[in-house]
Structures are given as C-alpha cells and as structure tokens.
Design a protein that fits this description.
Elements lengths: L1 H43 L3 E7 L1 E4 L4 E16 L4 E6 L6 E2 L4 E5 L2 H29 L5 H28 L1 E2 L4 E6 L6 E2 L4 E17 L1 H4 L7 E6 L2 E13 L9 E7 L12 E6 L6 E6 L11 E5 L5 E5 L1 E6 L2 E6 L6 E5 L10 E3 L2
Parallel strand pairs: 1-21
Antiparallel strand pairs: 1-20, 2-15, 3-10, 3-14, 4-6, 4-9, 5-8, 6-7, 8-10, 10-13, 11-12, 11-14, 12-13, 15-19, 16-17, 16-20, 18-19
Pfam families: Beta-barrel_RND_2, BSH_RND, YknX_C
GO molecular function, one term: efflux transmembrane transporter activity
Keywords: Membrane, Transmembrane, Transmembrane helix
C-alpha cells in the first residue's frame, strides 16, 4: 500500500511539472507574439491611414437635359376701360380672334352724350372763328381776339378727339391674335374700369420654360438649337431655339431659360404640357478631373491633399471647374497621374505621414 501511494505521488509531481512547463512555454510564446504586434503598431503610430485616387484626363460629358412646361407665345388679360353695361359679347371661350377684332360691346351712353357735347362746342367755335376772321378784315376785332378764337377751335377739336377715343375704348378689342382662354363676364353685367373681361393666349408658337444651373448656363447662348421631347408624345422629336437666358439667377440659384419651338404641327402641343429640353454639345475636349471626395472640406475650399512617393501628404491649392456627378474638373493645380487623398483628410495636416489603404 505504501509503495502504491509513493508511485501516485511521484506521478502527480511529474504531471504537475509538465503542466507548469507547458504553461510557461505558452506564456513565453504569447509574449513574443505580443511584442511583435507592439513593434508593428509602434512603427505605424505616426502614419494616418488614408484612401487615394488618381488625377485623370477625361473627356467631359457636357450634354444635359432639363424639364419644364410649355408656355404660350403671348398671353394677355383684357379689362374694361370705362364704366357701363355689357350689351353684347362677340367672343366665347375657345374662339380664335385676330388683332382689332371686337370682343365685347359696352353701353357708352354717357360717353356718347359727352361726345355730342364736345362736337357742339367745336361747331360753335368754328362759327366764331369765321366771324372773327371776317371782322378782322374790316378792323372790327384785334389780332389777339382772332388768335383766341382760333385757339378755342383747336381746344374743341382736341376734346372731340378725346371723346371719340373714350367711346371707342368702351368696346373691347383684341390687341393680339389668339384664343379666348377665359371669359369673365356675362351679357348684361355692369363693368367699371379695370374689370377683367377676357384672357387671350397666342399658341401659334410655344416656348418651353426651363431652369439650368450655373455650370450649365455657361454653355448656352441665344440661338442655340435644342432637341425637345414631350412626355405625351414620346415617339416624336421637336426642335427648338434658345430665345432667352436670364441675366440673374432665381431664388434657387438657377437661371430661367426659354426655348421657342420651331413648329407645332396640328397644334398638338398645348400650353402647360410637360417637356424636356436636351442640350448636346459637340467637340468636347479632355480635362483633368479628380474624385469629388478629394477636396478637403468641400469643393468650394479648392484644396486637395497630394501624396508623393515618400507617402507624405501635401496640401495643394487648386481651381475647381464643373461638377459632374462624383467627378470635379480641375482647371489648375494638379497634373495627370498624381495621387490625391479621397478619404481620411480630416486627420491630416500639411506634411503628415500616411499609410495607404488598398
């Protein structure tokens, strides 16, 4: 029994020693691995991890398309110029009218009375002038009295002319060719100066009203030919011409542009329809571009970080051009093939050592 107990004790001691030796070896091995990792971290502690891109020389795609709505070539509201009752309406909604055509007849009784009164005054003034001229020949009146009589005739003529204009203005006449889009009155209605009577639109021509960005407007000029697509007629192509480019941007910093359609066969297109203007530019030359994310801060900062063969980041002043999606044109400041940092700039200063991330 004693011999067996001794053997067990020896065996336990051996097993314990082996376990201690194994643990010691593992600890030593782990220490070596940790030291190696620590040495690597210490070596890279001063480097900033970044991603990079390349300055490319690409042909810029300047073509673009913008949406808008068709507007009539001309639109005008007609209002009453004198008070009176509408005696007759000579145009209804949808009626095509021409310049000078009477749209409505307004009772101008008071104006007619005024015209008759003015005519009576003129007739009397003419008779007085004749008497003064005969009397002047015999010395019955002075030159001054004759001049006053002649002046009275001229004043009376002017009053008659004014009265005739007011009588003529009582009736409403079209001043543009077009279609009556709205009629605001009914026969028998009493109108006063300024009362709206008709809305006329000239759709013999149409113009597409669109807005373009700052970069796009720089490519346009009056007279440019534009392809126009219409959503309700997807199989048809129309041609237009740029007739107006705003000199000032609107509140959204876009520039209004108007495009006149060359033709509108069968008057199929109507004001208010939805259309797309397609601007195409030929002979598009190459230009240097960088990823949009290369800019430190924003594109307006005009600063990028360039990395050389020594893996040192240097800040570079550039001049940015057009923005085209995820690319930005560079007019000055970098060369083709140079490496720019596109991620990690927030941790950089000029002269920072960088570690490139694949």
């Amino acid at each position: 029994m004693k011999k067996n107990s001794f053997v067990k004790i020896i065996t336990g001691i051996v097993i314990l020693a082996a376990a201690v030796a194994s643990i010691a070896w593992v600890l030593k091995h782990n220490k070596a691995k940790n030291k190696a990792k620590t040495d690597v971290v210490a070596q890279a502690a001063g480097d900033v991890s970044v991603k990079t891109g390349t300055v490319e020389n690409l042909a810029l795609d300047l073509d673009f398309a913008v949406n808008g709505n068709f507007a009539p070539w001309a639109q005008m509201d007609f209002a009453a110029e004198s008070s009176g009752r509408v005696v007759k309406l000579l145009a209804d909604e949808g009626t095509y009218v021409k310049v000078g055509q009477t749209l409505a007849i307004v009772d101008a009784g008071v104006l007619n009375v005024d015209l008759e009164s003015a005519q009576t005054v003129l007739d009397n003034a003419v008779r007085d002038q004749q008497r003064f001229e005969n009397a002047f020949k015999t010395g019955g009146v002075t030159q001054q009295q004759l001049d006053q009589a002649r002046l009275a005739v001229e004043n009376a003529k002017a009053r008659v002319a004014q009265s005739k204009i007011r009588v003529g203005d009582a009736n409403v006449h079209a001043t543009i060719n077009g279609v009556v889009n709205k009629r605001y009155v009914e026969p028998g209605a009493y109108v006063t100066p300024g009362s709206k009577l008709f809305e006329l639109v000239d759709v013999s021509k149409l113009k597409l009203a669109v807005t373009v960005s700052e970069g796009q407007v720089a490519q346009l000029k009056i007279g440019d030919t534009v392809q126009v697509k219409v959503s309700v007629f997807p199989d048809k192509n129309y041609r237009g011409r740029v007739t107006f480019i705003a000199a000032k941007a609107d509140a959204s910093l876009n520039f209004p542009v108007e495009i006149e359609l060359a033709s509108n066969p069968g008057n199929q297109l109507r004001a208010g329809m939805y259309g797309t203007a397609v601007f195409r530019f030929g002979n598009q030359t190459k230009s240097l571009v960088v990823p949009r994310t290369a800019f430190a801060g924003s594109v307006s900062s005009n600063q990028v970080f360039v990395v050389g063969s020594d893996n040192v980041a240097r800040i570079r002043k550039v001049i940015a051009g057009r923005i085209m999606g995820d690319k930005v044109q560079i007019l000055e400041g970098v060369n083709e093939g140079e490496t720019v940092i596109i991620s990690g700039q927030i941790n950089l200063v000029d002269g920072s050592k960088v570690a490139l991330i694949k």
